[in-house]
Amino acid sequence: MRSVLATLLVHADQVVPVSSLIRELWDEDPPVSCLTTLQTYILNLRKLLASAAGLTSRQVASEILVTRSGGYLFRTGQDDLDVHRFHELVADGRRALSSGDDVTALATLTSALQIWRGPALVDVAAGRIIEGRRQQFEESRLVVLEYLVDTQLRLGMYREVLTELAALTADNPYHEGLHAQYMRALYLNGRRAQALEVFQRLRVNLVNHLGLEPGLIAQELHRSILNAEPIDAQGGLRRPIGDIVRMSSAGASRVY
């Protein structure tokens, strides 16, 4: 039942075909009773929603979890889901970055990321739809984190970003952009040896696991640090975020 609710919520205000829900629950091997079981899940969800919202099941069926031709639709308001607010804040941060207002961008992107309360859809058994949307949510969060760190570096917050970057690079061992930011932050904090170690760790991971050398940006930064050359905190990322969040306006408040 939780998977049904999650599938409906990540497609909030859109009709989800019955066939998609069945595929999400049972992949390519649905039982003979799959349609009846799905209808039971929908009925139970309506009862739970009615109890939570103080409505009747009939009201829920007509106003919230609605039957449509060939499927179901979960109707929401703009402020009902965390992801809606996340979209709004990221859009505000994008505008601030585009205008060169790093202080506003820092506050806005920080607020957007504070909406998250853990990995997306972590407590839902994932079929194809949920897993695809989960990866989309996580990638969007990672991109916003990268721009937030870049903004902090431009504002001279070198020490403040170290703990976050240590965790991010450990969780994303092949992400060259995050490693370059970590190298830059360490070097600007006077920790040249550790910055070089970060590059070596990145290179070992890329070569051993993917057969690739680090890209030009990471290599040039490594060369500058190796030669003790002065660098700035720009990192080459002052450009509009663009469409960094390509999610539908959907997601349960528990998603984050």
From TrEMBL:
<dbReference type="InterPro" id="IPR011990">
    <property type="entry name" value="TPR-like_helical_dom_sf"/>
</dbReference>
<keyword id="KW-0804">Transcription</keyword>
<keyword id="KW-0902">Two-component regulatory system</keyword>
<dbReference type="InterPro" id="IPR001867">
    <property type="entry name" value="OmpR/PhoB-type_DNA-bd"/>
</dbReference>
<dbReference type="InterPro" id="IPR005158">
    <property type="entry name" value="BTAD"/>
</dbReference>
<comment type="similarity">
    <text>Belongs to the AfsR/DnrI/RedD regulatory family.</text>
</comment>
<dbReference type="Pfam" id="PF00486">
    <property type="entry name" value="Trans_reg_C"/>
</dbReference>
<dbReference type="InterPro" id="IPR051677">
    <property type="entry name" value="AfsR-DnrI-RedD_regulator"/>
</dbReference>
<feature type="DNA-binding region" description="OmpR/PhoB-type">
    <location>
        <begin position="1"/>
        <end position="76"/>
    </location>
</feature>
<dbReference type="InterPro" id="IPR016032">
    <property type="entry name" value="Sig_transdc_resp-reg_C-effctor"/>
</dbReference>
<keyword id="KW-0805">Transcription regulation</keyword>
<dbReference type="InterPro" id="IPR036388">
    <property type="entry name" value="WH-like_DNA-bd_sf"/>
</dbReference>
<dbReference type="Pfam" id="PF03704">
    <property type="entry name" value="BTAD"/>
</dbReference>
<feature type="domain" description="OmpR/PhoB-type">
    <location>
        <begin position="1"/>
        <end position="76"/>
    </location>
</feature>
<keyword id="KW-0238">DNA-binding</keyword>
<protein>
    <submittedName>
        <fullName>Transcriptional regulator</fullName>
    </submittedName>
</protein>
